[in-house]
Each structure stands twice: as structure tokens, then as C-alpha cells.
């Protein structure tokens, strides 16, 4: 059977090849799957998509016409896939419903610590043998308040680390996590969380109800010296409202591993290109903002688990089995 994987990065390639070696014919591409590239999947029964691929009705139709039967996404989020269109076309869809939560939680803390202690600015200076401390003053997280927006597996892992720092914990979610309650977390309305937290970290999926969860009103509620971290999905934050907030001199720092319009930019070398996204370009000019390249998940442990789960999704599909990762079952499962 022929499988094509899109958005494959160098470090991921050998893991994918090993997972399917001797079983199926695998072709790995560093292309983004969209309407311009969908024809490259012709003849492939399985398409392994990545988080920045565009799987709208037009692309899915091209895949189905080319013989694709299964789209299996190497990510937890699937807001980039038109599931209704997939059902109409008879395409099965699966994802990786979970992987190492520590990879994302630890990276969220990496950003929080780096922003708070001005690490990027310090390193840039010391490379020029400038060892002054001016402008590098941070704060202890101990004794301050962490607001955890979304307390599933990743949010709970983030909260455990926050508890280790000796922070007060506020949480917001549709359901309370007993593990977080044991840590002493107090669940509150999100308006109160934004108003009281010194550090706000986002760990909810991107859904219609969470789109621009951090909007102009939420940003206005936050403390002037609060830190905002997003390692989940870019669409959770109204980026233009964030720019305006920072321009007004508010927020102590922001760490973004994701950005709403990151498709076609993140995972690629754009260093020689003219940046036409004015909002992203402006965000990059603030000294208290760190932007990374959607790498929070990118550890050996997490990527190996993602690849293993993707391979299992393929095998279960071929055997006619649905599993916990199935988003759209094949037509005969109705």
C-alpha cells in the first residue's frame, strides 16, 4: 500500500521510515498539503497530514478522487480538517489523540522562564561581550499566581510544575480535573483568572467557542505586568489586540509557540523573504515577546509516540477497526 506523509521535518523522517519499513511504501514530503499540492497524493491510499496542512472540501475531494481512503493526522488538533466533507466523500479520518503532555508543558515553562528572566536579551548581549544587567530584572514565580486555561493532560502537567515553584493555582475549564484540585487549584470564571493571574498559560483546543478566547476584553482584564504564554493554537489569541496591548506598554512578556496565521510560515525558512504579515512582523519587534516555531511538542519522546500512534491508526484502518483516535470512520461503519 502507498502512503504519503506531508510536512515531514528532518528529525521526523527516520522515525516514520522505521515505523512503516517493510510493510508499506512510504513517501515523505516537506510540502504543505493544500489545493496546490493535493494532486501529489494521487494513488496513495493513506495520507499522513500535519497540523498546518489545509484539508478543506476542495483538497479532500482531490484526495478522494485520487484514491485516498484514510487521512491520519500526526497531531492532536484537527481544526484544519473539514470532517463533514470527509464524511460526504467517504474518507476516514484519524488523529493522535494524545502524546507526551510533558513535552508541551515543559516548553510552556521554558517560554515563561525565558520571558520572565529576559534570557534572549541576555544571550544576545553576552555574545557581544556585553555583560551588563540593565533591563534584565525578572521576578520570582514563587508566591505568585498561575492561571491555567485548560486543565487536561497538558494543563495538569503545567500545573504540577507551577505547584513545584510554589505558585497559587487558578484554573478554568468546562470540567474540573481531580488531579489539579489535589494540587490546590481553585477553579474560577475565566474573567477572574485573567484579572488575578501573574502568569496565564493556554492549554485548550481551538474550537468555535475558544476562538479568540484571549480577545481585547480579556487582555484589558490582565495585569499590566502579567505574562501570557500560548503553546496550544494560535487562534486562541486575537493577535492584533495583543499588538495593541503591547504597544500601550502593557504585559511584562509574551511567549508564543503558535500564531493564528502560521501556515506557510512556521516550519519553513523565510529569512530571505519579505514578510507581508504586518501583525506577525510587529509582534517580533517587541523586546518582551518571544516567538518560537511551533516546537513545543518536538521531543524524541513525543514524536516517537506520535509516529507509533499514526502507524497503529493505519493498521487498525486496514483491519477495519476503529480506535480512540478515529474522527470519521470508514463508510461501512456508518
Order of helices and strands: EHEEHEHEHHEHEHEHEHEHEHEHE
**Backbone structural class:** alpha/beta
Mean pLDDT, nearest integer? 95
The proportion of residues forming helix, as a percent range, comes to: 25-40%
How many individual domains? 2
Mind telling me the C-alpha Rg?
21 Å
**Largest sheet, spatial ordering of strands:** 8-7-6-9-10-11-12
CATH class of the largest domain reads: Alpha Beta
3D architecture notes:
The protein is an alpha/beta fold. It has twelve helices and 13 strands. The strands form two sheets. It has a seven-stranded parallel sheet with strand order 8-7-6-9-10-11-12, sandwiched between helices. The chain is globular. The mean pLDDT is about 95. InterPro entries: D-isomer_2_OHA_DH_cat_dom (IPR006139), D-isomer_DH_CS (IPR029753), D-isomer_DH_CS1 (IPR029752), D-isomer_DH_NAD-bd (IPR006140), D-LDH-like (IPR058205), NAD(P)-bd_dom_sf (IPR036291). Belongs to the D-isomer specific 2-hydroxyacid dehydrogenase family. This is Hydroxyacid dehydrogenase.
Give short descriptive properties of this protein.
2 domains, globular, 12 helices, Rossmann fold, alpha/beta, 334 residues, 7-stranded parallel beta sheet
